[in-house]
Write the structure tokens for this entry.
Amino acid sequence: MTTTPLTDGFGRAFHYLRLSVEDACNFRCLYCLPGGYHRAEELPPLTVDEIRRLARAFAGMGLWKIRLTGGEPTVRADIAAIAEAVARVPGIRKVSLSTNGYRLVELAAPLRRAGVSSVNVSVDSLDAARFARITGQDKLKAVWAGVERCLELGLETKINVVLMKDLNDQELGRFFELAKKLPLSVRFIELMPTGENSNLFAKSHLSGTVVVERLLSEKWTEKPRPEGGGPARLFGSLDSLGSVGVIAPYSKDFCATCNRLRVTSRGGLRLCLFAEADFSLRHLLQSDDQTPELQRTVRDLIGKKEVSHYLPEGKIGNVKHFAMMGG
Ligand code: SAM
Ligand code: SF4
């Protein structure tokens, strides 16, 4: 098995895979699945064996971090088995999960035992009524109990907040207080446009600089990016146990630090969140002896990765919503 790192023509090395294991979701977030989930695919999602082969092939090319995402990954009954299969692959040093948190109370401990060390939970509001309005589910209490369970178990815990004008930007102070009081990272993500959220995007998109300016005015200071960290700018303060991050895809140089690839729940390689298409790898996940061919195919496809997502130019590729491929 080769260990030459995966790099593209722009000198970027890819050590991080965001793997969607399920495109279905039980929430109806305004920015993602406002009309709820409708199955568009006939094929079932990748099996545990297919996922194991995929992880092994990527680990053989220097990739060491895998995030399990969706849709909602925890709607799969075998999510702990998936996590364990991935965590056992030689070379994989970190397995993370992105979740809406509705099953975290019961799942946090089994996922930790399976090898998950870090959990990102979407919590777009700390107000129950607003949370229900944004997500279509009155489940803040259950989700928050899941966050507390992760903290008790010592899991690295991040709260993802999609920043939206008039929907949750009035809560910046409450989120900052949370990051002071608890050892977790609150990360504000700029709302991104998709095929299905253009009205909301036009009304509610707010630049992450609003958060950065407020943090700086409240004496938070910017921290260096951790190894393998994403594009978030991170801030800490002397009296905080946690940190605040800002993910601003419209900012200059956002793509220059790109270190990630995506695979959809049906095995499609996505070279960029806003790509025009996926490249199916599933036919190369059917037996262990296909690994070399799978690796050659991925290396060839990386050559097609573009230098930028071209979001500021108005390009959003074929993205209907992020539940398609994990955000
Ligand atoms: N269901 C899980 C969750 O909500 O965390 C995992 C999948 S979700 C697609 C992954 C992340 O993408 C979440 O943090 C979600 O808030 C974010 N997201 C989805 N649509 C988005 C959009 N249009 N703009 C910015 N972030 C988005
Ligand atoms: Fe579901 Fe996550 Fe999309 Fe919300 S953001 S609808 S929880 S996939």
Observations:
- The chain has one domain: 6-324.
- The chain has a mean pLDDT of 93.
- Residues 25, 31-32, 69-70, 72, 98-100, 122, 160, 162, 189, 191-192, 194, 197, 322-323, 326-327 surround S-adenosylmethionine (ligand 1) (CB under 6 Å).
